[in-house]
Amino acid sequence: WECHVGKTHLTLFDTDIEVMFDKEVPIDYVETCIEHFNSLSSKMIQALSNRLLKYCQFMQEEWQAMSIYEELASSIQEQLPLVLNTQNILQYVSPNMIVVEKPKDNIPAYSLDCNCVWEPEHGAEIIIKDNEVLYVGPFLGIGPWQNIAHYKCEY
Questions:
Q1: CA triplet 80, 85, 87: central angle to 5 degrees?
Q2: How far apart are CA 124 and CA 140, in angstroms?
């Protein structure tokens, strides 16, 4: 997989990150995907925040259930506020890279690779296709063009 790497700014997180795309991906499609993310509707931001919150709550329960990770669970709990909700969850996510794969349609579809407080090893992957948040969970690297069954989560 031969790719190009550049930089872009994500307004939702107010941060500059890398953008990675296959050499066969037209630059105007990459720009369309970045513009799409930077202009997500409030409904899409709410859907993204809901999915991130569910992922966080699921992982907190998982860490607490595994007694060998008591210190990690405690450390994570200390880094998160007492009241975690859809209004503040984005503060605990740090995007590293947006990945744009070769389009199969002319609709915006991309993945974000992120760090998050509640899953220090696998982070968070956010996959968006058009006006749908397809996946939020640990990084799988599956991209936006898989069969919908690939995006199922237990939370």
A1: 105
A2: 9
Residue 1 pLDDT grade (very low, low, confident, very high; cuts 50, 70, 90): low
Q: How confident is the model at residue 2 (pLDDT cuts 50, 70, 90)?
A: confident
The residue to which tokens 């953008």 are assigned: 19
What confidence score (pLDDT) does residue 100 get? 97
Concatenated DSSP letters for 47-92? HHHHHHHHHHHHHHHHHHHSGGGHHHHHHHHHHS-SS--TTTGGGG
Q: What is the mean pLDDT of the chain?
A: 93
Which three-class secondary structure state does DSSP give residue 33? helix
Find where tokens 């690297």 sit. 141
How far is Cα 59 from Cα 119, in angstroms, rounded to an integer? 7
Return the pLDDT at 52. Answer: 97
